[in-house]
Amino acid sequence: MNVKLRVLSTGALFFLGQAAFAQTTKKDSASKVKQIDEVVVLGYSKTATKTKSTAAVTTISAETLENRPNTTFLNSIQGSAPGLSVNSSSGSPGSGKIDIIIRGVGSLNASTDPLYVIDGLTTSATQFRNLNPNDIESLSILKDAQATSIYGNRGANGVIVITTKTGKFNSGVRLSYDAMTSFSTFPKDKYNMSNGPQFLTIKQRLYDEFGQSPNPITNEAIANAPTTNWNKEFFRTGISQQHNLSLQFGGENVSVYSSLGYLENEGIIKGTDFKRFTFRNNIVGKSKDNRFNYSAMVGLGYSKRHQLDQEENSVSLNANGVQNVLFGSLTSDPTLAPYPYLNGKDMFNHIGQSSQKYASYILYDNMIGGVQNLFSETSINSNIKASYKLTDYLTLGNRVGIEFKQSDRNFARSPLGYLSNSVAASSEAQYGGVETISNTKDFTFNNVISLSYNQQFGEHNISLSAYADYLKAHYAFSSSTQNGLEPLFWSLGAGTGYIPFNPATPSLYVPSVSANKVNSGTLAYFATADYDYSGKYGLSATIRRDGSYRFAKENRWETFWSVAGRWNIDKESFMADSKFRMLKLRVSYGTAGNQNLGIASNNFNSIYLRPNNYLDLDKTYRGYGNLVGYYFVPSNPNLQWERQSQANIGLDFNYNSVIEGSVDVYRKLTNRLFNEITVSAASGGLNDDLSPEDYYIDGNNGELENKGVEIGLRGHIFKKEDLKLSVYVNAAYNKNKILSMDYANLTDDNVNAAGGPADQWYLYEYLGVNPDTGEQVFRGANGQATEAPTANDRVFTGKSIYAKWTGGAGIDAEYKGFFASAFFSFQAGGWQYDNLYAWAMNPLYTTIYNNVSSDLLNAWTPDNRNTDIPALSAVNADSNDRSDRYLYKTDFIRLKNVSIGYNFTKKQLGGLPIRSLKLYAQGENLYTWTDWRGYDPEPTNQYSLGVYPNPKTISVGVNVEF
Question: 38 and 140 in contact (C-beta within 8 Å)?
């Protein structure tokens, strides 16, 4: 960490491990007590000691991230900071589907992702797949306006500042090697899917209720029914390994940190995996007189991953049973024998055009090579920083950074796969198969120049800084698709075996190409001011002027600002005999902005979202390629930034180094929400057949409020040389409410409307089962019970997909060389519609060979009236009629991580040329306490169907330092 601080004249700056601390002295009635003050990393490489910071910031250390079996560090920080919500929407190796929310959802139709900063330069989460977590020194979670307003147009959703490791000046050569092997397994569900006899029993009862005679399901068939466990066919124990080698050293004026990393992660679903190579080299230097400081940092990454096709192209896997492994594994016919064919072509020759009965076979064939989906990525993250002290008080600095990522995708339906042969037969073509080769390039240039003034006047300290920030980003995409592959010559990505198209060949062989380019960027000028008096009182202020390509000329620029103050109560004379090492009150208020219209996919940089928004012709994707003759809605040149204001009051404390923590209370208000606004047919309509309500465009409409409380505590129970024990907990409560909205689209089950929370469920109210008929009963709009609800009977449930409570708790213990730790994460107050269980509870699916839940054995009959499960033949039991019957809480407490191990002493290592040796074992996601029936309550997708769950993982590893 390259940190430069001005501290009190009675203090000194030094490094402990890799973290920077300021050592000061505090007088009490007995003696001078030394205390170590942590340095907080803020925006644009600004730093402040913990005692002097006016911002709401939480720091996560390297120890939280190292030696974890996670592809990205984002998976490792769940529950680690109050106000930080981390929900992994996919456990697929290398997936980028991780939802990060800081202090509640801040927008309805724009990006809610925080801004990420690596070593002072902004980046996107799409780069983290190729960032080695072991190269990270610390994370700073910036939460209030004082911390985020310095990033202006991109700071509204909070900021995560990532500092990578550096060497230390005047240190010897240290060589470290880490190795870990992991075993991941598939979590269990609570759907109680039927075995073979149960499946046929339900099917037999269904036929009886519909009066089919003779019943095709006999008692003998039920008694002799086999059972295939399709979970065992589709899933596996994933074996992973990672190796990290790092070298660091430093002289008087230069330090170096270099690392190499390799990760190989085998997915718990067959056919999914991830491999990554990383390299990092960080150099930090200074002149002998300490007036010139510089750093050069570069990180390289290369990765390959096989990923389920539909997971790449949608929020979750859809209900297509021939492509969705997670849906198909549950709903496959349990009486069907395991896949018996050599390949898909062999399968097609045996069964021809398949019925739904063989969906599990098609799914299995896709998984073993019938469908292939390979990604490879190369990424570069590099920056150079230099600063020069023009005088003792004035410093000029400049940082230049580039970020580049190239992503190549090879997708194919193999000519030997079942689907390809089936499509070819339907098209009367000799050869099937299709291959798409696509390439994406993402290049970002960022330059920040600064001028800083810092001077001490007796007990007064003043710091002033001015900055200019220029960012330009370029995106290019190209894709070609070839239909018709010759199986003898075709190989994925090789470009061989293509069937040429000519007028005499079937139209199936027509190739296609597509391409896209986007240029985007921002420009900003801003300044900061900090004042401190005697370490007791402090004031901070920021003002920033931002410009964005996304808006028309009249609305392109916006100004954001913040002010903050602190009172270090423990420095007052009346606290001289107090045991408080720190007692600090913070207050802040400020504004930030959001320019990211729309919500980016998990592998797309949000800066490229509709960059020339006011020029776009088709604003709501209602048109078709913006071609004349198709209905479209016009753009809106009056569109403006989303603007957010936030007030925060916080208290930081440290009592006698035994208990320390912080408490924050905040209110965050987002106005000018990106939303749909209606326009009249006269001004916006092009089709007289549509009503005025059908004409709406993107505009600024509505206000969204977030209010919350955050608390973080750590207690040091024992701090002896041979025995250390500490416990910690953090918790956050957030409640959001849409204060105003002129127009609400109520066509979906999950909606936004004034007076309610963001993304609340809009469903029928389920009352139970009619004991006389076995039909479902709902509450109608008139308050009366009904068995035939209409659209007007749906109600606002007040239940949102977002959890109100989030947090974590843990314990760390050390005894001599032994160490152990346990960490729990939790959330409460969120709701999800379990449409997978709704499918499993529909008995009609047995007629198309889909498995169902054995819970249906308790369905209503004339002899079983006291049940909450409708009759198998109930007319209104269709799972598409969504009610709150399948709306469940996503509350959970998860044993996120457990670690045990032993640190060998130098004496125990004898004459070996080893400085230290650590052996350990750990578990990740070992157990989850939840009422959620599915694999994983964590994802925040609107529906649960087919979400790749986060696996349970056991790891063993070794750390050696030479």
Answer: no
